[in-house]
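Quick question, first post here. What does this chain look like in 3D?
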Amino acid sequence: MPTNSSLPRPPLSPAVADVRVAVRRALTAVRASGLSEGDLVLVALSGGPDSLALAAATAFEAPRLGIRAGAVIVDHALQADSKGVATRAAAAAEKLGLAPVLVRTVRIVGGSGPEAAAREARYGAIADVAASAGARQVLLGHTLDDQAETVLLGLARGSGAASLRGMTPVAGLYLRPLLEVRRETTHAACAAEHLEPWADPHNSEPRFTRVRVRERVLPVLEEELGPGVAEALARTAEQLREDSEALDRMVQEIIEEICQPAEAGIAVDVGALAANPAALRNRIIRLVALSEFGRSLDRGHTLEVARLVTDWRGQGPIDVPGIRVSRQGALLVFTARG
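> Answer (accepted):
Ran it through. Tokens below.
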């Protein structure tokens, strides 16, 4: 009689393999860039198929790289039995071998819409838990489909490159290993590993814009334009992200040479702004507003400021959110506005 150890292993599901490879690549990259042996990473686990497949793959891959892996679960307390959902997600994480498994309940404060408010509360709780646990990275389960939806929403809103570049694979604390993995793959991986994901009812609620994009808009595009629309949108995000990061680096180098302190603010050399292409000039203006005053200027406000450089006819100061900008000789002066 053959022993258990001599029995052939069942073939590994392609979906499970795809998710594991994606996680291995992401963890290997951060391991090479400063993550040390024995450091802790957390999977942000909702219990849905994307995060559950991510949790299973992380539980398998992290120990092989000398990394400890746990989970953080946020209970938004927005739905009936939300506590039960969090409890079941925690149990699934523990069964997978993740440790520690940390659950945090949050209170949603309205004001920016239910989606934005829940997202803000969730990220705040995740960051707090990661800090208290000493976690170096938090893995998020965003997939290629999520990336495509983000790009499409950015196109529809005219949000510019900042939105069209989509979600980044690494953003400070956060790591997104599955941005090249389709949602159908995470579902298949859960099925192959006999994991029982939670179906979030909000993911089929048409009052949410992202759900309408997922359920209605993308299927129509696939039907009318042919398959591969989601992949094309994700590729667009990747290409724009590369371009945007290059421009951002150029702006950082330029801005150190053309800015100087001003009374109650900062001044920028007009000649240098005028000499730069519009893409760099507008980025410089937005970066000054954000870094010095904590204000994000939309395109309309940015162009208003830029006209003090490119269409100067002696006009007086202009006011944009929280900032007054004036042309003073060869300088563009930004000051805080009460």
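The longest strand covers residues 68-75.
The chain has two domains: 4-237, 263-336.
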